[in-house]
Amino acid sequence: MILADENIHGFIIKALRDAGFVVISVRELTAGIKDDAVIQMALQHQYLLLTEDKDFGEWVFAHHVKDLSVLFLRYSFYEYKEIAQAIVQFLQSKTIERPYFATISTKKIRIRSL
Questions:
Q1: CA–CA separation, 78 and 62 (whole Å)
Q2: Does the 2-113 domain belong in CATH 3.40.50?
């Protein structure tokens, strides 16, 4: 299951759901919660965290939050359809041992095992 941070475009959430993924949206569920609460929710339920917030990279790499897998999106707003397609293709084609930190753009994907 995927936990979509509240900064994730609604089109992306819909595209993932349409592709058969279960997506829990922070915006729909508990808008306004702090990053540490998002992390706790992801860890408690073993969600894959989908975000555009660079702070989660700091949580993982500088603060050493353990067992959190993150899909960090980097794209221009007008590329929201392309990034949605890239995420769906990535999730459908890759089985990666968790935890990991993946940076996804419309042009490339970088995966770092944690």
A1: 31
A2: yes
